[in-house]
Amino acid sequence: MDRINGADVFDIGGGRRGFRSQNAMAGINGTEVTDKFLNDVQEEIIAVLDEAEIVPSPDDQKQLYKAIAQNSQSGKWNYAVASGTPNALTATFTPQIFTYHTGITIHVRIGADNTDEASLAVDGLAALPILTMRGQPLVRGDLPAGGVCTFICTGDAWLFTGLVQSEVPIIGSPTLWVRTDGNDENDGLENTSDRALATITEALARLGRYTLVGDGAFIRLGIPGTYQAPGGIAGVNGLITIMGDAASPASYIASDISVPFGNALFTTSGRIKVLGMMLHSTRASVVPLGAYSGGNTAVEDVIIQTTVPTNTLVSSSYNSTVSLGDGCNLRGAAAVGIEARSGTVTISGAVSWSNGAAYSTCNIRCLAGGRVVTTGAGSASGSATGVRYAASQCSVITTNGGGVNFFPGSVAGSADATSSYS
Prior knowledge:
By secondary structure, this protein is mainly β. It has two domains: 76-165, no CATH class; 175-421. The radius of gyration is 36 Å and the shape is rod-shaped. It has three helices and 33 strands. Helix 1 (35-51) crosses helix 2 (63-74). It has helices spanning 35-51, 63-74, 200-207; strands at 10-11, 17-18, 79-81, 83-84, 88-91, 105-109, 119-122, 128-131, 148-153, 158-160, 170-172, 175-178, 210-212, 217-221, 225-228, 231-233, 239-243, 252-255, 262-267, 271-281, 286-292, 296-306, 312-317, 321-324, 328-341, 344-347, 350-367, 371-374, 379-382, 389-391, 396-397, 414-415, 420-421. The protein has a 21-stranded parallel sheet that branches. The protein has an eight-stranded mixed sheet with strand order 3-6-9-10-8-7-5-4, with no helix packed on it. The mean pLDDT is 93. A hairpin with a 5-residue loop joins strand 7 and strand 8.
């Protein structure tokens, strides 16, 4: 529709064509109202009624008002079904959005879960990133398939209104599956290659959304193989159990294949239990099993081994606890078998030493107030070469009456004047 363009149009300001009244006495003609102009006005109004599916009536003078209200209330002007890809969405609106004005609010039905950060391009305009209301990029699953998401335009981004999926805590006790032939894009909910995850690290990240209850969460290794060890585990809000197979722990290996330093399995907060696995380090200064800064790690039916003879096998430091339960086995050569440095290691089950266990420093080392405690069910068996134990700097080693030869070794152990062994 255009402004009036008949004879004797009048400039009403700013170059805008408008109307003027006839003044016959002054010889001023009125503006000619053309049939085209009147038809244009009529059809513009009727188009709004048609959009609202309202039949024109000569007896209702509020039909335009009703049509505008109904069209607006229906939401169809700012609703669209997403196209494009899961992470690069597109959407087409009617009427068309010609520019990104700050404050535009749209509703988009999502076709597939996003797998990473996401963007949205509207009506052929440039793609803008989709962010949380806190201005953070989306993560996998924040745009749920089949969901209708509301976005507000800031001019340079779309803000997701409300909480995204990753910001909503889930209360439960989930089980996630990990397989060497899995994929970290999967959901991890079944022990199949097309559902299981590929890494323990990704499974731990998924559990960050949960408030764990009951027995906590379980990460299960679905098939034998060598898995990437998770390295540092922090932010645990409940008990997490990582499981291989107690009947065949040597077949389920967590190795430091991508951990350049630190520990192969290293709890920095919360509680972790490991069952039926081998924890294996192949790099210098990588401890297969440890806990740090208040962490709590308990293991059963676990083989602990390193191929680097200068490494320590088990470490607990800075007010943390490691518990070695039934079926734990320390193998091969290392500098130290078990070290408690301002932390506690508990021998709570039948622990054995084998496969050429040899220690260049000592088997059991306590220092800086550390404690190695043997409970009533704890025992030590097998053989090793090297010093049995060394306690210093106000440390404590207890054997539950096992005596000076309780821990395997070929050289007598010692405790300084500030420490005790019993």
